[in-house]
Amino acid sequence: MYKKKDVLIISVVAILVLTSSILFLPSCSSIAEPTQTDLESQMVQSPEPLEENNSFLDSEKEAILDRITNNFDQIEIMDYAFGTKDSLIYAAAICKELDSGSETALVYITETGVGYINLAEGILFLKYHAEDGIKVNSSNVVLLALLDTTTDKIIDYEIAFSREDSDTIIFDVNSYER
């Protein structure tokens, strides 16, 4: 069996061998300098900038939309927007409830699951204002507008999402008449 002194000596020798191989490796003559062609191919194959890497792929977007329709079979997605993989809100969709015809249902997906908010339950004269679209901004706020068909006034909605704790995402709804 090894004694403590032998183990210590073996450990020190192993560290010295490892350190010396790392220090002398760059000076080996077998390492070739990269050619211009090598550098160009590295530039072509380099990953996208970080800002673009956190966007969802098309296949991931399809899966997210499928998740919405699978969780809520009595809705029709009218319009949707995606956040990023780094945001609290992965996606938000304004939906029409098939049984009532209401266009005020907001379905959202976060890392914790799928949620549903009815912005104006039972108020059928409010319709989604498609010209403004739906957006998810970098501050985890969903932006959309509803049209009051009785007055032709547009009401802007801001639904702000925030993390309460590791398992809970909360939201706050604000609306403003234009």
Structure description:
The radius of gyration is 28 Å and the shape is globular. It is 28% helix and 37% strand. With 178 residues, the protein is α+β, with helices and mostly antiparallel strands. The strands form two sheets. Strands 5, 6, 7, 8 and 9 form a five-stranded antiparallel beta sheet that branches. The protein has a four-stranded antiparallel beta sheet with strand order 1-2-3-4, with helices on one face. The longest helix is centred in the first third of the chain and has 21 residues, at 4-24. It has two domains: 4-51, no CATH class; 53-177, no CATH class. A hairpin with a 4-residue loop joins strand 6 (135-136) and strand 7. The chain is built from four helices and nine strands, in the order H-H-H-H-E-E-E-E-E-E-E-E-E.
Q: What's the helix-strand series?
A: HHHHEEEEEEEEE
Low-confidence stretches: 1-51
Number of domains: 2
Q: What's the helix count? A: 4
Q: What is the C-alpha radius of gyration, as a whole number of Å?
A: 28 Å
Mean pLDDT: 77
Main sheet specs: 5 strands, antiparallel
User: What is the terminal separation in angstroms?
Assistant: 84 Å
Which structural category fits the helices and strands?
alpha+beta
Overall geometry: globular
Say how many strands there are.
9
Strand proportion: 35-45%
Percent helix: 25-40%
Summarize the structure.
This protein has 178 residues and is an alpha+beta fold. 28% of the residues lie in helices and 37% in strands.
Offer a few descriptive terms.
disordered N terminus, 2 domains, 9 strands, 4 helices, 178 residues, five-stranded antiparallel beta sheet, 37% strand
